[in-house]
Write a structure and sequence with these properties.
Elements lengths: L13 H10 L2 H7 L3 H18 L1 H13 L2 H4 L7 H8 L3 H13 L3 E3 L5 E3 L1 H8 L3 H14 L3 H6 L5 H5 L12 H25 L7 E5 L5 H9 L4 E6 L1 H13 L6 E5 L13 E5 L7 H14 L5 E6 L9 H14 L7 H11 L2 E4 L10 E6 L8
Bound molecules: S-adenosylmethionine.
The site of S-adenosylmethionine has 19 residues, from helix 12 and strand 4.
């Protein structure tokens, strides 16, 4: 028997620390696995730890299913691996391995005759706007995460910093084709964000909504469609707004939207809005840029004016997977921003002079969380 009664001198954590050190000993694990209660717990923990370990294999199998077109091809009905292998230019046994992996992820169903069909989850992936594009975009993020310690030490020149060139703040340095590439990726997924924001934010008494960093106008268009009394101002870099014009025209909304091509870093924001939205904007930027932007917004709003902040947020005191894993490391790889918790964003808004009005529980934290603030009638921040 191993003596485990005394916490070793000089090691902290109290009783909990002592139990954790106990669990970290191989002989204790071996003994627990022989007891009925301990066996169940050890198995569950083991399976979950293995799942973390193989997380990157899961996401790479998903990438391959999308990139080879295999997932989409199955929309037309079940197919044999040999069939799909030809189109994907790979040996049939390799395609069979990919499809088998897809079935293990419950994205596909393996049939008795050896063919594979789409599962419900696989079909959902094809139906969610922008999801296939996000999955393909994961290639850049994956490359940046290849050496996570180097990334954490800031030693990596990342692909995501190249993908989002504006993060370092050079005015006028975003090439039009680069802006078009990131705007397209954002526009597709912005439909989901707009759904979640408009579900919780009341805009029925708003007159003019200014969407800052609004991209090609998907959020503005959704807000205008839902609220006939509303007009909008769309603020973004000139290279981005070029693509907004035809989109808004196609939606029949040109007459209700004023385009404001500018950098929010350079000059004061335009006047005239009673509501400002920052949708997936703050997490791209440093605290310094965020402070300046929030002060700028506060200055432009009238007393009683509202600020809507919507983006995936970190969990803060209650860490959560989307904000503290995917978005925390994604923004780290971008180089300047960070996923902040609702409390941190609320504190930055309060510093700029806003009162927090609404912080609803997010329906889909991996899509967005939302905060609503108000400029108080007697201003405190300018
Ligand atoms: C992550 S995208 C989000 C776009 C859109 N709000 C959405 O949720 O799809 C950030 C947006 O902020 C814009 N942006 C970045 N820096 C900016 C600046 N200095 N002035 C104006 N817009 C800026 C980018 O061009 C981009 O459209």
């Amino acid at each position: 028997m191993t003596a485990v009664a005394e916490p070793p001198a000089g090691r902290g954590g109290g009783l909990r620390g002592w139990i954790l050190r106990l669990l970290a000993r191989p002989e204790v694990q071996a003994r627990a696995a022989r007891l009925p209660f301990g066996r169940g717990m050890a198995r569950r923990e083991g399976a979950e730890i293995f799942d973390i370990l193989q997380g990157f294999v899961k996401s790479q199998v998903l990438l391959a299913l999308v990139e080879t077109g295999a997932l989409r091809a199955l929309l037309d009905g079940p197919r044999a691996p040999e069939d799909l292998a030809r189109a994907a230019e790979m040996p049939a046994p390799r395609m069979a391995a990919l499809l088998q992996g897809g079935a293990a992820l419950d994205l596909l169903k393996r049939r008795r005759d050896g063919r594979f069909a789409l599962s419900r989850r696989g079909a959902v992936i094809l139906g969610v706007p922008g999801l296939e594009a996000m999955i393909l975009h994961n290639r850049a993020f994956y490359a940046d995460m290849a050496d996570p310690v180097a990334l954490l030490r800031g030693e990596t020149e990342t692909e995501l910093a190249r993908f989002w060139p504006y993060v370092f703040g050079q005015a006028g340095e975003v090439a039009p084709d680069v802006a078009a590439r990131y705007s397209e990726l954002m526009a597709q997924s912005q439909r989901l964000v707009a759904e979640d924001v408009l579900r919780v934010v009341r805009l029925s008494d708003a007159r003019v909504l200014m969407d800052v960093g609004g991209g090609t106008g998907t959020f503005v268009a959704a807000a205008l469609r839902a609220h006939p009394q509303l007009r909008a101002m769309l603020v973004d870099l000139p290279e981005v707004l070029g693509a907004a014009r035809p989109r808004l025209a196609a939606a029949g909304l040109t007459g209700r939207v004023t385009l404001c091509p500018m950098s929010f870093r350079e000059a004061g924001l335009p006047e005239g809005a009673d509501t400002v939205s920052l949708v997936r904007v703050l997490y791209d930027h440093t605290d310094e840029t965020v402070r300046a932007l929030l002060t700028n917004v506060h200055r432009r709003l009238p007393p009683g004016g509202r600020l809507i902040v919507a983006e995936p947020m970190a969990g803060g005191a209650r860490p959560e997977p989307a904000g503290d894993l995917y978005f925390a490391f994604y923004t780290m790889a971008m180089g300047t921003g960070r996923a902040r918790s609702a409390a941190e964003i609320g504190a930055l808004c309060a510093e700029a002079g806003f009162d927090l009005r609404q912080s609803p529980r997010a329906a889909r934290p991996y899509v967005t969380s939302v905060l609503v603030c108000e400029k108080p009638a007697v201003g405190r921040g300018g």
